[in-house]
Amino acid sequence: MNVLVFDIETVPDVEAGRRLLELDGVPDADVATAMTHLRLQQTGREFLPHHKQRIVAISIAMRAGSNFKLWSLGDEDSDEPELLRRFYDGIDRFNPTLVSWNGCGFDLPVIHYRSLLHGVAAPRYWETGDSDNSFRYNNYLNRFHWRHIDLMDVLAGYSPRAFAPLDQIAAMLGLPGKMGMHGGKVWDAFQAGDIASIRDYCETDVLNTYLIYLRFELMRGQLTPEAYDLECNRVRDALRDPDRPHLERFLSSWRDQAD
């Protein structure tokens, strides 16, 4: 079975904000400030709704055959439609089980709205059994199906009162958790043109999610203890890459936590 773990990083969609707030000619930073300030007045929190988010990174951990690979889609110059097309291409090609942390609550709704905006087609992702009967009772869209496993949702028993942050569950399990950045710093990094750091940060979130997924599979009997150890070692081997220092740091922190 192919498994595709994913995470996205977003910034305010200042183009939409400029239109919605009638702020023609206003710089991006000021538009973003206006958007978050209005949101704070309306809800008491600055975090923008899904349809006002713009995707700037999508990172993937892929377990296929005997291989494990971690990467961010496209490159630092890739625009949003390309990131979306590459994400859906992976689904078309590998027909994987999708795994996320809060994917139902955040990542996928944002992906939906951005795909709607850019007209990115994804027939396999949206399949519910009309063309392929195997998707009728197990598809990517139904909250209680298994083609997409939102670990936060499943582990909470589908109860919002039991939701937990990724970094806290990672830390509880002896994993590195957040490293070097958090979601609140993504906009600043984006304005500074530091897409590389955003992509690195997104990849470490994917790593935490994948390692929690392995523990989940151990818990529900899909992996034996021996197979679980084998999968963790497969990840460790993939992280030993001197050209990707953020992965070396993750590995070092993971080792320190284990010690």
Structural class from helices and strands?
alpha/beta
Tell me the series of helices and strands, N- to C-terminal: EHHEEHEHEHHHHHH
Strand order of the largest sheet: 3-2-1-4-5
How many β-strands, per DSSP? Answer: 5
Strand content: 5-15%
CATH C-level class is Alpha Beta
Determine the CATH superfamily.
Ribonuclease H-like superfamily/Ribonuclease H
Q: So what's the overall shape?
A: globular
Mean pLDDT across the residues is 96
Specify the helix fraction band.
40-55%
Q: Examine the secondary-structure arrangement and name the CATH architecture.
A: 2-Layer Sandwich
Q: Count the helices. How many?
A: 10
State the separation between the terminal residues, measured CA to CA.
32 Å
What is the C-alpha radius of gyration, as a whole number of Å? 19 Å
Major beta sheet summary: 5 strands, mixed
Stretches where pLDDT is under 50 for at least 5 consecutive residues are none
CATH topology: Nucleotidyltransferase, domain 5
Count of discrete structural domains = 1
What does this structure look like?
By secondary structure, the chain is an alpha/beta fold. It has a single domain (3-258), classed as 2-Layer Sandwich (Nucleotidyltransferase, domain 5), CATH 3.30.420. Helices cover 49% and strands 14% of the residues. The protein has helices at 14-20, 28-43, 80-94, 103-118, 151-155, 166-172, 186-191, 195-219, 225-239, 245-258; strands spanning 3-12, 53-64, 67-72, 97-100, 148-150. α6 crosses α8 (195-219) and α8 runs antiparallel to α9. The longest helix is centred in the C-terminal third of the chain and has 25 residues, at 195-219.
